[in-house]
Amino acid sequence: MSDFFNEGWSAYIGTATVLGLIACIVLLFVAARTKPMSGDNTTGHVWDEDLTELNNPLPRWWMWLFILTVVFAGVYLGLYPGLGSLAGRLGWTSTAQYEQEKQQARATAAPVYASFAPLTFEALAHDPRAMAVGERLFANNCAGCHGSDAKGSKGFPNLTDTDWLYGGTPEKIIESITLGRQGSMPPMAAAVGNADDVRDLANYVLSLSGSEENKTRAEYGRSKFAACAACHGAKGTGNQLIGAPNLTDDIWLHGWGVPAVTAMINNGKHSVMPAHGERLSTEQIRVLAAYVWGLSNHGDTTASAAR
């Protein structure tokens, strides 16, 4: 796809656009000068014995409207970008307009966020006005992955419980929103052994939360867990510094059961949460983080107050 944006493609698009406009004028000129194919102002085509195709000239209003449309297109392409990489005489870009409108929106909302600045994080999470704003920010920026109720789905964390991959403190939530997260588990099958060893390990992992499928296999898999302990800890309680999940809490982000755990061991997983630091202001991120923090720290109280 990178080839699409080189100078050759730009010249191709610009040339094709100009030739298209010229072709419209030529087509109109040729059609206006076309002579009848017979002497009675018809094209000579007859259907159903008496339906004759006439060669009447185009209405003048239609012809001039067509010409004005082509002229307007030429003027527009001279003023605005449209001919390949040419910027146009006005220098307008959709990116610049977006940034301008974003700055205007932030300036308009600045007094609202200024009123939230003196509040502590906990007080902010209990403020009905702040949480109403946080709910809107969540709906616009987070609900697409975590759901409108913030309870997530397979592969997308539930934000209403107390199970945090990278930590649930205000500072960590702000960090996650601002910088995003890159979660990666490498395929571990080669380090574990053969297919039976992987299945034994899967049973042992499930046993850590009291949900083993096969106790005998789980016992065989205990020694194989050494390959996982570097990230998940010797007891499987996880490591929030690197986003390694707690395997003892019976919360399964990517699916539960021997087949799901076996697939994770064999294939690994790479997950991405996009960074919002450039999309949202510092004040917006603070309010959004307070809303997310409130979802798991005082249940529905914050949401009810916001409503």
TrEMBL record:
Pathway: Energy metabolism; oxidative phosphorylation. Its cofactor is heme c. The keyword Metal-binding applies. The keyword Nucleotide-binding does not apply. Its main location: membrane. The chain crosses the membrane at residues 12-32, 61-80. InterPro entries: CcoP_N, CcoP_N_sf, Cyt_c-like_dom, Cyt_c-like_dom_sf, Cyt_C_IC, Cyt_c_oxidase_cbb3_su3, Cytochrome_c_Oxidase_Subunit. Residues 129-209, 216-296 form the Cytochrome c domain. It comes from the Bacteria. Belongs to the CcoP / FixP family. NCBIfam families: ccoP. This is Cbb3-type cytochrome c oxidase subunit. The gene is ccoP.
